[in-house]
Task: structure prediction
Amino acid sequence: MKLLHQPGDLTNGDRKACLAIGMFDGVHLGHQQVLRQAIEDSHQHEARSVAVTFDRHPASVIAPGRATALLQTRDQRLRAIESLGIDAVLLIEFDTAFSRKPGATFVRELTDGFSAIHSICVGAKFTFGHKRDGNVELLRTLGQALGFHVHGLQAVSLDGQAVSSTRIRAAVRDGHLDAAGQMLGRTFAIEGTVIEGDRRGRELGFPTANLDTDGLVLPPNGVYAAHVRLGQEEAHRAVLNIGLRPTLAKPEPTLQVEAHLLDFDGELYGQVMEIEFVEQLRDEQRFDSTDELAAQISRDIEHARTLF
Result:
């Protein structure tokens, strides 16, 4: 998959582009339908399939105080798109200037930038442009004028409800990770860089990798069995804690996401870690002493081993 920063980066000669446009947070079943339509179009018309997406969620620019917690990091999102077989991704910098661009201008710039566009694939309720002045109807009007086809695909339904990033975020927050996984079409996973911690886990005999997960939606506080991936390495088994660590709490406790990798010995600081959730082991709880906490962690590890 080729990463594009402007349409002209796609060297496709006389071949047309088939676009799929969206934020695609989660790359869930509905997103996959839109992306696969672009791929199918490209195969049928000897074109290139291109996902057009943004480097950040539009809400983080338009309404930063109400920014949406995301299901994926940008790298996770790009990997998920790539796994579907898309030829290229146009990653647009969504800044204040871009947020003020009318929808028609955005589409005309795409048609000018690519040598030719065969089709544009979006969800049926897709909106775009300044103050969301663009929709599928506008796309079809522009398509007639500029010579491209438009697919406005209806949402994928699961259990009688439309699959959406909003619905998946709610499922994750409520701890319904199986339901989230069904809508995603894969196991729910978070990703973050390992940062320096206070080494309290090491003092207890269970060293942990502390993750920076700022901006991501997280499951309820508690202890989880998980698989950890470091780059291209095989997955490591782990026990993950999400919470305020009430037994070790500081005067102003802060949310921590920390993973203890089983049967692992190595340096992790600065590495990017992806964590796939297997099952929740227990809720977060406070213990009367660090000895009791250490004993419970040992039981958590044994419990986790039975699940792998």
Residues 2-162 form a domain with the Rossmann fold fold (CATH 3.40.50.620).
